Amino acid sequence: MEHFNMYIPTRVVFGAGELNNLHKQVIPGKKALVVISNGRSTRANGYLERTEEQLRLANMEYILFDQVEANPLVGTVMAGSKKARENSCDVIVALGGGSVLDAAKAIAVVATNDGDYWDYIFSGTGKGRVMEHRPLPIVAIPTTAGTGSETDSACVVTNDRTNEKTGFGHPSLYPTLAVIDPELMLTVPPAFTAYQGFDALFHSIEGYVSNRSNPMSDLYALEAIENVSRYLPTAVNDGNDLEARSHVALGSYLSGVVMCVGGVTSQHSLEHAMSAYHQHLPHGAGLILISRAYFSHLIETHACDNRFIQMARTMGMSDATNPKDFIAALEALKEKCGVANLKMSDYGICPEEASKFTTNAKETMGRLFTLDRIPLSDADCQKIYNDSYKNKTMEYKEKPKVICHMESSVDGRLVVDRWTAPFDGKDIDEVTDVYTRIKNDFHAGAWILGRKSAQMHFFPSNFSCNTATPIRSSNNWADGRKPERYFVIIDPNGRIEYDNDRVGGDSVIAVLGERLVSEEYLAHLRRQGISYLFAGADGTDLHRALEVLYAEFGIKLILLDGGGITNGLFLKAGLIDELSLVLYPGIDGKSGISSTFEYKGEEEHPAMGQALELLQVQPLEDGVVWLRYKFHHKQKQK
User: Fold this and answer.
1) Is the dihedral of CA 453, 459, 465, 468 positive or negative?
2) N or C, which terminus of the chain has less Cβ within 10 Å?
3) 417-426, pLDDT tens digit by residue?
4) Beta bridge partners of 488
5) What phi and psi, each to the nearest 5 degrees, are found at residue 3?
6) CA 572 – CA 336 distance, rounded (Å)
7) Torsion angle defined by CA atoms of residues 429, 432, 433 and 436, in that order, rounded to the nearest 10 degrees
């Protein structure tokens, strides 16, 4: 039988309502530094007030430190340690998620030891300094189920000066006491419940496939995998289900034990490199993004076939016989938890960063690579990153119906000023007005056009700013109003300067590229009350844009009527459902003039695989003819 080494000295109190018994426990100190996040939930949900009451019942003094961010930074650790020293705190009470617990451990180190926290880091640019004094004791009260940090002796902190995110561990950092109360997890939003739950799951999955797995770590890992995979979907979809929350919390705790008895693999190193550069990326979300490619690589290299089969069975696929069944079980769980469609571009990650991430992962958290059964080369790591980017192309199940509604001359040209005059002497505007009447009769939820058309007709000014700060978040933003109709402008580079938020009463939505706009431009949009969404890194992911318009703005029908170039992009993407073409009885006659569809990309046949079925031919007044065609998409556009 394999050897193992198990030392987990933390006293664990587990169960709903156990926070109310904190004052009955042995707390190793008289004055606590209470560490919480810089968010509002700990206060708003009453958890801080309850913890403070428990400390008063225990006849303890306390002082609050509430600056911990989602990925705790070195500067925050140093500020916390300074506050602990200045106030003569002799114990730390950490109340929050994994980031808070990790920050508390780091604070405990430099609260009793001189120098900068990074001096004690043994990897990357750390100095490898040895602690001279024992850290402050820690009481851990997790409010999320994910990291297992309440029971292990390690923490992860980001050095934003060097873009390093790495761990530090020492036996003296085991919390003295952990109070795991699932009631404190009932208020975690669905998305973060999923991210945190998958973090816990991957701790055990990685531990089970690592070269340090042993009978004891396997015991905990399989139990954790079963609890999380069975109950996480319920916890995500019904956050008030205390039973489900309890099982996920148990799985998270057991996964923490797995890290103590075994260890996690390079998947964690690869993710930490991503969130070191993109600090708004939740750790669990990053793990989800790379998980399919990462574990597929292990399966393809036959790292441990039987273990993947066993995990698939533990996750509910009782008839699993192939290692790839694990991938199917994992993807099914993502679907149930609503995280199957996460994309790297949602967090500003670009394929070009694969090499940078690889170097960072190996230099900063190279130790975890030693726990892999089969070594990962630099090329392997870069492939995992690149495959993760490619594999997250979303399958859009719901999007608005798109009708391309255009008016052109009989030779397909769009510049009205160039058309020949009506035969009966009418003004050209009188004849073309039928186009607008038809458009209004569709009762669409939005109409969409490109930047050039928008500037030509509505917003001529260009945005300018002396600074161009990269965006801090790629979250979409809505002004909160529910107008009768929206006016959607595709402006990936954020060039338009808006003087108002309306076009003819329709609320403007800007479609942007994550890498192409600045924080200053987003601030401009918000000041004007203009909603915006991101269509990938360069603003060309029209599938994504349509999905967001459907799901977040409730738009079921869109009229595409803006410029041949924009129409060409939609055509190439295979997103047009119907063509409504109003033919004006006139001619342009000049080559090179803007036409109904103008795809500027390299594809020779952007409409390949699409066919038109005639639905309607309707002669209108003044010689105008209205044509309607249904698009048939005979093959999926790449």
Assistant:
1) negative
2) N
3) 899 999 888 8
4) 448, 509
5) -80, 155
6) 32
7) -140
| Residue 15 φ/ψ, nearest 5 degrees | 145, 155
Question: In this predicted model, what pLDDT tens digit does every residue of 457-492 receive, in sequence order?
Answer: 999 999 999 888 887 667 788 776 778 899 999 999
Nearest 10 degrees: CA dihedral of 450, 455, 456, 460? 180
Under a CB-based contact definition with an 8 Å cutoff, are residues 393 and 544 in contact? no
Q: Which residues pair with 34 in a beta bridge?
A: 64, 93
Closest CA to 493 of 478, 511, 509, 475: 511
Indicate the SS3 state at residue 179. Answer: strand
What residues contact 536, with CB distance under 8 A and at least 6 apart?
343, 345, 513, 514, 544
Pseudo-torsion of CA 266, 272, 275, 276, nearest 10°?
Answer: -130
Label the pairing between strands 154-159 and 164-169: antiparallel
Sheet strands (E) in 82-223: 91-96, 138-142, 154-159, 164-169, 177-180
C-alpha closest to that of 329 among 447, 413, 250, 228: 228
Contact 213, 221 (CB under 8 A): yes
CB atoms within 10 A of CB 538: 15
The span from the first CA to the last CA of the chain, in angstroms, equals: 52
Cα–Cα nearest to 546, from 628, 446, 466: 446
**CA distance linking residue 75 with residue 369, whole number of Å:** 28
Cα-based torsion angle of the residue sequence 417, 422, 425, 426 in order, rounded to the nearest 10 degrees: -70
Beta strands, E only, 273-411: 401-409
Quote the tokens at residue 511: 């479609």
Helix 283-300 and helix 266-277, axial crossing angle in degrees, nearest 10: 140
Backbone φ/ψ region at 89: left (φ over 0), alpha (ψ -120 to 50), beta: beta
Q: How large is the average pLDDT for residues 111-123? A: 96
The pLDDT of residue 209 is above 60? yes
When the candidates are 1.10.10.10, 1.20.1090.10, 3.40.50.720, 1.10.1200.10, the CATH number that belongs to 191-393 is: 1.20.1090.10
Domain segments of the chain as ranges: 1-187, 191-393, 401-633
The architecture in CATH of the region 401-633 reads: 3-Layer(aba) Sandwich (3.40)
E strand map for 70-118:
91-96
Annotate 501-565 with three-state secondary structure.
Answer: CEECCEEEEEEECCCCCEHHHHHHHHHHCCEEEECCCCCCCHHHHHHHHHHHHCCCEEEECCCHH
Please provide residue 324's backbone torsions phi and psi, each rounded to the nearest 5 degrees: -70, -15
Sequence letter at residue 196: Q
DSSP state of 18: G
Give the largest Cα separation in the chain, rounded.
98
Over residues 221-243, the pLDDT tens digits come to 999 999 999 999 999 999 999 99
Which candidate, 361, 377, 376, 380, places its Cα nearest to that of 124? 361
CA distance 518 to 514: 9
State how beta strands 164-169 and 531-534 pair.
unpaired
**CATH code, 1-187:** 3.40.50.1970
List, in sequence order, every residue forming a beta bridge with 531; answer none if it has no partner: 509
CA distance 149 to 269: 17
